[in-house]
Write a structure and sequence with these properties.
single chain; mainly beta; four-stranded antiparallel sheet; globular
């Protein structure tokens, strides 16, 4: 059973930076897209950023210009570089891999931005 493992969350002051990474434990072939989602308390999970196998990226409007998603295809790793963090970025961040109709999720990593 493949699972995704995230790392890099933590507490940071507003204006600071964090980098999240995600890698699978086990082997996944033919990943079509990787991405990051987040869920704040009392809110629905929302898309943050995605990147396809061809490296096309998509960002939520709220993070454009501040966050950058990248992937290492050889290692099946996806990274989210978060700069100029704001208190409203506080949430649990989840890694997602898509393989055809299959979705794989990480367990989530907490990001807290203090004002």
């Amino acid at each position: 059973q493949v699972r995704l493992v995230e790392s890099g969350g933590g507490l940071v002051q507003a204006g600071g930076s964090l980098s999240l990474s995600c890698a699978p434990v086990g082997t996944i072939f033919s990943i079509t897209a990787m991405g990051w989602y987040r869920q704040a308390p009392g809110k629905q999970r929302e898309l943050v950023a995605t990147i396809t196998s061809g490296s096309s990226t998509n960002y939520a409007d709220s993070v454009k210009g501040r966050f950058t998603i990248s992937r290492d295809n050889a290692k099946n790793t996806v990274i989210l570089q978060m700069n100029s963090l704001k208190p409203e970025d506080t949430a649990v961040y989840y890694c997602n891999f898509k393989r055809g109709l299959m979705n794989y999720w990480g367990q989530g990593t907490q990001v807290t931005v203090s004002s």
